Amino acid sequence: MQLALDTRTAAVGGPLRRLSSLLYRKPNLYLSLLLVPPLLWFGAIYLGSLLALLWQGFYTFDDFTMAVTPELTLANLGALFQPANYDIILRTLGMAVAVSLAAGLLAFPIAYYMARYTRGKTKAFFYIAVMLPMWASYIVKAYAWTLLLAKGGVAQWFVDHLGLAPLLQLVLGIPGIGGSTLSTSHLGRFLVFVYIWLPFMILPIQASLERLPPNLLQASADLGARPAQTFRQVILPLSIPGIAAGSIFTFSLTLGDFIVPQLVGPPGYFIGSMVYAQQGAIGNLPMAAAFTLVPIVLIAIYLSIVKRLGAFDAL
Amino acid sequence: MHSERASWGLRLAAWGGLVFLHFPILIIFLYAFNTEDAAFSFPPKGFTLKWFSVAFARQDVLDAIGLSLQIACLATLIAMILGTLAAAALYRRDFFGKEGISLMLILPIALPGIVTGLALLAAFKSLGIEPGVLTIVIGHATFCVVIVYNNVIARLRRTSHSLIEASMDLGADGWQTFRYIILPNLGSALLAGGMLAFALSFDEIIVTTFTAGHERTLPLWLLNQLSRPRDVPVTNVVAMLVMLVTMLPILGAYYLTRGGEGVAGSGK
């Protein structure tokens, strides 16, 4: 006992001990010490950069001298509504919506099976099997698809051996979807996008289905609902927040991508490739900055819609 | 409820979905060993290890790997420090602006990469900073913080605060409490967050495109390779390596954080 007291009094005198007592007694000091480094980093570097970007969107770009002058103008924002740029925005938006819908349709059965019919080791296996492709290198996944879709590649081998060639030609002939080959068609680009963002849709849906209380389903069955009715009127409505949460990822990630449109699909800019081209080859940083406002605004609108669907509770 | 069997259609859709998710990855592993120069033909004609030695004899490949490793290590280190500090500050107390801070941490991965990339580029340009290794690290660290933060805060929420109070009551100073109580509890979550941040940084391409200047990280090298059909076998080997480097950390992180419900003191 005496020994314990001795070490204790000795510890009180130590500078570390005094510091930790001080921090314990003054939680606000402790809190601000913890918060200063991350706040400095994010405040100065990240928010500062975002403000610099927005500010640059109002600078003037001289088409003849190719120089940027700090005279403020609304011309860049106005230029977004020119038909050519408007087309780019609509094309990207259309793809983002289509990809989100398709990813939702593909993801739901996987998530549903994971949540309701797997347990223990199988559930862990499914979880890892979805996480692995999600984290596997993005650029390599995109590259894999250029191999798959290339002329004489894997996709063509399967199409030929399954006798689906005429069907593929028919689909590729549809205007707005097709193209001359699979790797230069909208369909090919759509497939790659759906593949790359699919795991981001599966996991939120699975999480929302996992939270579904089983006795709700029993109650529904007890009250005389057929399985299909239970699915439509109980399971589906309660999984909407998960679907909405997943669609935030698929929508936002498709909207800002410029690598996949560059590698697969027909020519024609996406928002991302336009931003990249404007700042790089053309050197028109103000126009590029104005273009980045488009995905920011679209995502803000999208978030306000899915927030009503309860997406934020399912994240 | 769980005793009932899934219908054939559902089972097919679920397992088929998994096959769809893994097939392109298998293709990458398959083609890395392909004997042909132009590796587009399927099925492959034969298998060889020769492209591995060819790839590792190329100075540009080694340089890109070295640069990416260096950047990922630095970015992960910064992210681990900042993410842990932010998690320690935010996990217990409510204060004014807490929601705003957590939103700010998520913003770099919630907004498209082009926004973050162009914003950093605009800021570096107006400050006269030449893009290079430093600017890439700054970009990567910024979006990696939230990965570490999420892992650490989840663990902190499961750890009982009374353990820390008990340690202090028993006479430990701040460092001892940190070393013997907080760190062992946090360790695996911190490691998992760090591994995921490393994988994310190693593979990042969109933000990097804007902040890299003349530097060429491994993903940028790969993207550049895609317009050079002559180098396909070397590209395939590097693609497989990048795939491995990004996939192994997720397995590690999974084993480190699973069964976290059993953390000491969680039954408060």
Automatic annotation (TrEMBL), chain A:
Keywords, comma-separated and alphabetical: Cell membrane, Membrane, Transmembrane, Transmembrane helix, Transport
PROSITE patterns in alphabetical order: ABC_TM1 (PS50928)
SUPFAM superfamilies recorded: MetI-like (SSF161098)
Predominant localisation class: membrane
Parts of the chain that traverse the membrane: 29-55, 88-112, 124-145, 157-178, 190-209, 234-260, 281-305
GO biological process: transmembrane transport
Subcellular localization(s) per the UniProt record: Cell membrane
Top-level taxon of the source organism: Bacteria
Keyword Transmembrane helix: yes
A family per Pfam: BPD_transp_1
Domain ABC transmembrane type-1: 89-304
GO-annotated cellular components: plasma membrane
Topology of this chain in the membrane: Multi-pass membrane protein
Keyword Glycoprotein on entry: no
PANTHER family cross-referenced by the UniProt entry: INNER MEMBRANE ABC TRANSPORTER PERMEASE PROTEIN YDCU-RELATED, INNER MEMBRANE ABC TRANSPORTER PERMEASE PROTEIN YDCU-RELATED-RELATED
Family: Belongs to the binding-protein-dependent transport system permease family. CysTW subfamily.
Official protein name in the record: Putative spermidine/putrescine transport system permease protein
UniProtKB/TrEMBL annotation, chain B:
This protein's UniProt keywords: Cell membrane, Membrane, Transmembrane, Transmembrane helix, Transport
Transmembrane residue ranges: 12-33, 67-91, 103-124, 136-156, 177-200, 237-256
Gene Ontology, cellular component aspect: plasma membrane
Pfam families: BPD_transp_1
Domain of life of the organism encoding this protein: Bacteria
InterPro entries from the UniProt entry: Bact_Polyamine_Transport, MetI-like, MetI-like_sf
Keyword Transmembrane part of the UniProt annotation: yes
PROSITE patterns: ABC_TM1 (PS50928)
Primary subcellular site in the record, as a coarse category: membrane
BP-aspect Gene Ontology terms: transmembrane transport
Every ABC transmembrane type-1 domain range: 65-253
Membrane-protein topology: Multi-pass membrane protein
Subcellular location: Cell membrane
Entry similarity comment: Belongs to the binding-protein-dependent transport system permease family. CysTW subfamily.
Name listed for the protein in its UniProt record: Putative spermidine/putrescine transport system permease protein
Annotated organism of origin: Pseudomonas kuykendallii
Lineage: Bacteria, Pseudomonadati, Pseudomonadota, Gammaproteobacteria, Pseudomonadales
